[in-house]
Known about the structure:
By secondary structure, this protein is of the alpha+beta class. Helices cover 36% and strands 21% of the residues.
Amino acid sequence: MKYKLSEIGKIVGGGTPSSKHEEYYTPNGIPWLTPKDLSNYTNMYISRGARDITEEGFKKSSAKLLPAKSILVSSRAPIGYVAIANNSISTNQGFKSIVPNTDIVIPEYLYFVMKKSKAALEQVSSGSTFKEVSTKVMSNFEVDIPSIEVQRKILTYLMPISQKIELNKRINDNLLDVAQLIFNSMFPNVNYGTQTIGELTKNFDKFRKPLSKKQRIEIQGNYRYIGATSVNDYISKYNFDGIYLLLAEDGSVQDNNGFPILQYVFGKFWPNNHTHVLQGNNISTEWLYLFFRQHKVSELVTGAVQPKISQSNLNKISITAPTEEEKEIFSTRTDNIFSLIRQNELQSTKLLMLKNLLLSKYF
């Protein structure tokens, strides 16, 4: 049965303090989300974003405190990122969230509905400077919602797959933290020295080739088309095969703490022109990945309107390179960790394909 979103829940917009004072933000306050927090987020539930907002900042915004199980939908810059609030949470003005009526719709079911509605939401957006889905448009947006019994049955297929994907993500996050601890303990002075990171880096940017949305629609397939922060699409062609490190070149190039946006990728894929494509040169790509995870790049960023990290600025980072003996010890300690990370990621990729097949069948 078709419902307007306003008929199955309350539509709640977010808000931001009128003045962007840094003192309004804190690591330990009211959970606070921006669309950027969901840009590379793959889990169903979310508890908080990169930073919280203070009580004073919250009061100076028009944001509301959303209850747990609210469906958080980014409505601008970009549109259509979705997550379920794991607890009470607030958002900035880039969201139109839904507090569902659980007599009509199960929150997890509505989550999948909204995930599948990303393209449709983009089509009904408007605006000249940037596209946005207004509260009125979101309220009148129609979705198909079957009976609660049918929703429960469909979720019995989808939820175990989603939960396993999320479990693999948590395992990989823990494995990566262990690898980072090994790196930090072995190379405490790596951020200083007379050498440069460019000496340990192979750059493949000249082999990148951007594809328009129209071009990608014509060659849909199973290979990842990867942008600055995440997988943007799946196509039938690839131009890279192997283990690479992607470091965002322009747009969203750093997180709120000044660290670069990174993606450790392997297998067959096609990167666009918004991310640097790197490998280690006489060093493992995994070493390079862990180096950048602990090295802030704020001083490298240029451009006021469009932040950018150029290849030349990247290559100039001063380092103390590891010795041959240190490289060997590092590999002995971390090779198995990254092997497990890749195995888990491969399993999650297969599960995601199965999940997408089910989504196509039921939604």
